[in-house]
Amino acid sequence: MAGGEDRLSELPDDLLRRVLHFVPLKEAASTTALSRRWRAPLWLSSGGVNLQTGIENVYFSRRDDSARFFSSRDTYVSAAARTLDTADVPVTRLTIRLDSDLDDSADEFLSWPPRNMDKVVSRYTNLLDVTLSHQAARSVEELRIVANDPAEEYSLFDTRHCLYTVTLHTLPLETLRALELTSCKGLLYPRQAAAIVLPRLSSLRLSHCQQHLSSLQRAIDAAPALDAVHLKSVLIDATEKDDAPPTPSPNTRRLRCPAATVLVLDSCKWEEKKYSHSYGYEVVVVDGLKIDAPRLRRFRYKGSLPSFSFSPQPLELEQVVLDFFGPANTWKKKDLVRDLETFWRFAGSFTNTKEMRLTVNHLEDIAVLAEARRVALLPAFRRLERLEIQGAHSTKDKAGAMTIVNMLRCCPVLAALRINLTKAKPQDNVSNEKRVPGTRIPQKEIQIAALLGPSHLYQCLKSSLTRVGLQFRLEKVDCLGVKLIKFFAENAMVLEEMYIDGGYKKLCEHMNPKTEKWNSKRRKSGATSFVVLPLKR
User: Fold this and answer.
1) Which of 323, 329, 314, 404 lies closest to 357, judged by CA?
2) Spatial CA neighbour of 112 closest among 128, 125, 95
3) Chain centre to alpha carbon of residue 101
4) How far apart are CA 154 and CA 175, in angstroms?
5) CA distance 498 to 500
6) Judging by DSSP bridges, how do beta strands 269-276 and 280-285 pair with one another?
7) What is the pLDDT of residue 203?
8) What is the pLDDT of residue 27?
9) Rounded to whole angstroms, what are the CA distances from 236 to 180, 184, 219, 240, 372?
């Protein structure tokens, strides 16, 4: 509305239906009261049904509360059935959302076992099964189930927030293209069931869920066209089941995604139960997970340093995002030597990627200082053209500069590089002597160029690196960010553009005289000239 003019009602029906496709049921139904233009219930022909209800806290010891609780469940089912019955077109998008202050009430609302409580009996046991079994829901292409969507401050792996299960055979098998589950305690493949196939399923998203690895694998195997798998804050139990195929070796598991081109593992946790004669069953972290995704083109990982590997390596990777930053990071100083090897072994799974974004707590954590170790650990990213590195850097520890040198050595065809530097907290500073014994860099003023070693090891500086972006905080004239500016100006022979952000708006202007001086020397040596521009965040 603007100046009394109803512009919304002037939109064509097809566009209005598309908007109503995503609107909650109550709001969609109420649009018929807006004006004459809306009296025809367009929401019934939108193809989308968004069921949403709130659950009051209930004390089952009170008869009135019990009656009200069961009555609300029956009312929900009746309203859902009426909505699905009156749809004018096939329902292609179905959202079921449940909100409650207490997880126990939400769990009981969704799935209540048949029982008698003070002569109050629910007519329905599993509300999800009842809703999904409706004839109108059998044509759904996009299914989203959310129960108490957890806030970010919730514990990532608190299984109390996992409230319901979904069994594959209850889904619209022939039509389903996208499945998204939040706060689910199991996507199940029923035992002793005939082969289940989801021929059109291309996207699977699990968020804040609990999932057994064998059931997850069977769900993936049932979807031959599954293109994208997103797992966020999922607790995965890899304990072997009786009906699961045996693993090749103890403490090793495999996740197969044969058709996936996109795989996201965001803040997930993999564990299994081990039996010990001394302690009984104990939960341990899965070690040595193998991922089989040969068609993968985009991969994102966020969390603690994993002992994962890809077997075989994806051959056509376009983008890899690795984020070892934040509270999920569990690197321990006493394990830095082992973690260094684990990191570079994991990074070596992506030698075919064209783009990599890497975030670590501290650049020093992944620095390889000794030449012998560099030869043994550093992989060759032969196709990597775009690289972004972000991490804290200690002003007293020069190993952070060596991390950048290491990456340049690994990337012979690198064309675009961005480095985002943050300052480490004082309590996080750890000397290189503690990090890798016997390979400590002397704590004195070191020029980055002095760390390079033989020039033939850095092909990208001579022939491919044309664009560099540097983000840092200018605290003193000889900080690492300033040294990097000078280093790339003098050593990147085909550099064309340098973007800088030192937290000082006029830094680029102050760099102009130096840029002219550098360009004059570069032209004499046959190198290209470059410009300095402000970096856009």
Assistant:
1) 323
2) 125
3) 27
4) 34
5) 6
6) antiparallel
7) 97
8) 57
9) 17, 12, 14, 12, 38
Q: pTM (2 decimals)?
A: 0.83
pLDDT of 24 reads 58
What gap in Å lies between CA 281 and CA 273, rounded to an integer?
6
Q: Do 314 and 296 touch, CB atoms closer than 8 A?
A: yes
Tokens of 483: 């040294």
Cis peptide leading into residue 513 (ω within 30°)? no
Q: Are 373 and 405 in contact (CB under 8 A)?
A: no
User: Three-state DSSP class for 421?
Assistant: strand
**SS3 at position 72:** helix
Identify the CA nearest to 179 among candidates 125, 122, 219, 129: 219
CA-wise closest residue to 460 among 479, 488, 485: 488
Phi/psi for 336 (5° steps) reads -65, -35
Could you tell me which residues are beta bridge partners of residue 142? 93, 178
Q: What is the pLDDT of residue 28?
A: 53
Residues 473-522 pLDDT 10s: 887 777 888 889 999 999 999 999 999 998 877 788 888 888 999 999 99
Buried b (16+ CB within 10 A) or exposed e, 450-465: ebbeeeeebbbbeebb
How far apart CA 183 and CA 185 sit, in angstroms, is 7
pLDDT digit string, tens, across residues 46-87: 557 878 777 766 555 454 566 777 777 777 888 788 778 777
Name the DSSP class of 312.
S
What's the confidence (pLDDT) of residue 322? 96
Helix (H) / strand (E) containing 15: helix 13-20
The rounded distance, in Å, linking the Cα atoms of 328 and 303 is 5
What are the tokens at 223? 């979807």
Q: Which amino acid belongs to residue 222?
A: A
Classify 300 as helix, strand or coil: strand
| Most trustworthy range by pLDDT among 91-105, 138-152, 165-179, 271-285 | 165-179
Closest of 207, 206, 205, 195 to residue 227, by C-alpha: 205
CA distances from 7 to 11, 40, 43, 519 (A): 7, 17, 18, 57
pLDDT for 251 beyond 80: no
Give the amino acid at 482: V
Give the chain's mean pLDDT.
Answer: 79
**Helix%, strand%, coil% for the chain, nearest 5:** 35, 25, 40
pLDDT of residue 397: 62
